[in-house]
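Marked as duplicate of an earlier ticket. Keeping the data here for the record.
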Amino acid sequence: MLGHNMPYSVPTLETNLENNLLLQALYGQELSRPPVWMMRQAGRYLPEYMVLRRKYDFFTRCKTPELVCEITLQPVDIIGVDAAILFSDILVVPQAMGLEVLMEENKGPLLPNPIQTAADFSRIVVPDVHDRLHYVMDAIRVTKKALHYSVPLIGFAGAPFTLLCYMVQGKGTKTFDAAKSFCFTQPLLAHQLLQMITDTTIQYLLAQAAAGADVVQLFDSWSGLLSPNDFETFALPYIQQIVQAVKPYCPIIVFAKGSWYALEDIAKTGAAVAVDWCVQPTFARQLVGAETTLQGNFDPAKLLMHPKEIRTEVHKMIREFGVQKYIANLGHGITPNVPVDNARAFVDAVKEFSE
């Protein structure tokens, strides 16, 4: 299903963006330095974000296009990143599919009626994303206008296995035992749910691209809980479907945290590949090959070091990855305890790098 009233265009580098580094890196153009942005860059380490967090509850922040725009632009204006990533949450998809999702501040997500049996499937649907998630596309349009062609805008979604984890477990845990047991003991139901999530996510990412997202990222935050064989069964086929459907219309980055063993298979989908800090840059390059753009992988905890040490570590990271076909980023999201000056030091260090 290709969008409502907005044609999809094949991605191209012919763009009027002032800062086009992210797209140039994704298309393999030669660069003098890599682009830089940070996962969770619009968030709790920024005092300006905390002001809005105290005034509005989580889903009000996610569902009000003007608030989404303001929050999305904060790190662009304050720390000077080379791309904006839309402020949202991966759990808007289970919500759109029919599950109740509660977000309590400082407690994390709660899905009070998770999927556990075949009967529970009567409560969920593959929705029309233009109906159930229209506020995301509205926010993209508002944000693109406010960015005024300064930097690219990144959209995103959660990968199917990660969303299954929340939809079955009902809350965040470190192990997702109930979700994994569901996959192993009721595999037919697991694959039915994964396919429903996949069908929704394809629609959702295509709609984001049609609304103006320049790039999209797929977050498989919990795929590292799977063995290599189980990743091939419960994660990879659905990632492949999404990349195959979206890539003709929009560049896509896949981040499967902890699944280093799958980097080669993810690269074969044609996506750019983000890596966490547990993977050596040279090893990642060896696995994905010369043609794939890599992204990562600074440990967010290192952002608590002195800015001079951050600069040294960042330059070491860039030298190991190489400037070409590389996007400087963290190996996971920035944490709330990072000083703004240190986040800015990370970004500045990338900008100062010269071969």
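See parent ticket for discussion. The longest strand covers residues 153-158.
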